[in-house]
Amino acid sequence: MDDRKREKIPGSSLSKNKKGKRFMSGSINKVIIVGRLGRDPEMKSTQQGSKVALLSVATGERYRDKNTGETKTLTDWHRIVVFSDNMAGYAEKYLKKGDQVYIEGRLKTRTWDDNMGNRRYVTEIVVSDYRGSLINIGNQRRDQNSSGNNDGFHDDGIPF
Q1: Contact 27, 15 (CB under 8 A)
Q2: Which of 42, 34, 3 is nearest to 103 (CA)?
């Protein structure tokens, strides 16, 4: 038996090789982010009439500049596509710009050719009924009235 032969560990996605070392036998495509909405949800529908919500979510990381000692924030923007009538309806009814959201989904990269013939790519976080979550964990209006909101995301700094 060589190193490539694997023994499955019951109740786990891990396997062992001949030397007893563990490794993943499959793959996982799962993304979890907590951030603030950069704009109100944009609603669309499929050709079959199902609701789709498009969200723009900002996440950030703080650090102290070594030269100036100033605290700075790096912001990343994420494109979220919600393919679920229930969750898209929830987004439409309850989510607004500035709300803090918890999102679970999977990464998906789409490709297409633009009008000039150039290949284009977009990577999105896809949320669906069977593989995702969308939870409003706080809104900007309520958080501004309470103490302790220091996550660095305020309507003034959102470029939308």
Answers
A1: no
A2: 34
Predicted confidence (pLDDT) per residue in 30-49, tens digit: 999 999 999 999 999 999 99
Identity of the amino acid at 1: M
Take residue 51 and report the two structure tokens written for it. Answer: 């609701």
Q: Are 105 and 31 in contact (CB under 8 A)?
A: yes
Question: Is residue 130 classed as helix, strand or coil in its secondary structure?
Answer: helix
Reduced to 3 DSSP states, what percent helix, strand and coil does the chain have, rounded to the nearest 5? Answer: 15, 50, 40
Do residues 87 and 135 make contact, with C-beta atoms less than 8 angstroms apart?
no
Nearest partner of 58 among 21, 87, 106, 98, judged by Cα: 98
67/143 Cα distance (integer angstroms): 32
pLDDT digit string, tens, across residues 47-76: 999 999 999 999 999 999 999 999 999 999
DSSP designation for 57: E
Beta bridge partners of 79: 56
Distance CA 17, CA 10 (A): 14
DSSP string for 14-39 = EEE-TT--EEESS----EEEEEEESS
3-state secondary structure of 43: strand
